[in-house]
Design goal:
The chain has about 300 residues and is an all-alpha fold. About 60% of the residues lie in helices and about 0% in strands. Helix 4 runs parallel beside helix 7 and helix 7 packs parallel to helix 8.
Length: about 300
């Protein structure tokens, strides 16, 4: 039985309408949409369109900047969605709900496909078009995205130095520090394998960068050798592999978008630009899920 949960009184301004209410309204309207409301439309109230469309504050009058800004903001929204999904999946793994966690991870892979497609929206941008507003962005860089850093930490790519840019924002900095010290999605996966009897080494410092282990590789080899479609650990491994692949796709598309729009120029945030992204691309997510395929 599914229980519908709401956030309680005052959580939102959208009125509740059940199945019968919708049927009555459709009958009263003779099948046409409702055209009269006592205030702003329920859609605008729910989505927050006035706020949402007021967030595109460009710093130049160059037409191409708006597309760049909107695409970047769309990516930020997806970062937040993925953070919520992976946090949920991690909690379900901690509760031994493997099927529930796998369902969420598979769903997040679909989100990542949409996120990756966002790079296509910038594929038309030439270096001349990007350079027409790039200088006005100052030192603003996607590297500084706190929400993206949450994703990296949830995937196990941890480094305390990478939260230093946020020290002047105490709330954001503390949230990142908490995320750094918390188990990653992969940590929770390995803890699950340990509870299922696999020989998994204990990670004492969850804030440290993950180091691949032969024991973890052997565990995944066993999962794939002894199990198959229909087994929950096998399905979890495949879902995580899909997620890792989509994340690699995102990094690659980021690299190519930068290469196409600005070549090998230094990055706005102080990095070497293209070469920095190339190094990041080589860092694998869930490494033993890949190396186990060689060992099988």
């Amino acid at each position: 039985m599914t229980t519908r949960r709401t956030r309680g009184p005052g959580a939102g301004r959208v009125g509740v309408m059940d199945k019968r209410g919708r049927a009555d309204r459709a009958a009263a309207n003779a099948g046409a949409p409702t055209l009269e409301f006592t205030a702003r439309t329920p859609y605008d109230e729910y989505v927050g369109t006035e706020v949402l469309h007021g967030l595109q504050r460009t710093v130049t009058d160059v037409p191409e900047e708006l597309a760049f800004l909107v695409t970047t903001q769309v990516m930020e929204l997806y970062f937040g969605l993925l953070r919520a999904e992976w946090t949920l999946a991690r909690g379900l793994l901690d509760e031994d709900d493997v099927t529930g966690a796998t369902t969420v991870i598979v769903r997040s892979v679909r989100h990542f496909e949409a996120l990756n497609a966002a790079w296509t929206a910038l594929g038309w941008m030439t270096p001349a078009q990007f350079n027409s507003f790039r200088d006005e962005l100052g030192e603003a860089s996607g590297f500084q995205s706190a929400m993206y850093r949450h994703l990296e930490f949830l995937l196990g790519n941890k480094s305390e130095s990478l939260i230093r840019p946020h020290r002047r924002d105490p709330k954001v900095h503390q949230e990142l520090l908490d995320a750094l010290r918390a188990p990653s999605l992969y940590d929770s996966t390995l803890a699950l394998l340990a509870r299922r009897g696999f020989d998994i080494p204990v990670r004492h410092d969850l804030a440290a960068e993950y180091v691949p282990s032969p024991l973890v590789e052997a565990a995944w080899v066993r999962v794939y050798a002894e199990r198959g479609p229909g087994d929950e650990l096998w399905a979890l491994g495949e879902a995580l592999t899909d997620l890792s692949e989509r994340f690699s796709d995102w990094r690659y598309r980021h690299l190519m978008a930068v290469r196409r729009s600005m070549g090998a120029k230094p990055g706005s945030g102080g990095s070497s630009g293209l070469s920095w992204l190339e190094r990041s691309l080589r860092r694998e997510v869930f490494p033993e899920l890949w190396s186990a395929r060689t060992a099988m």
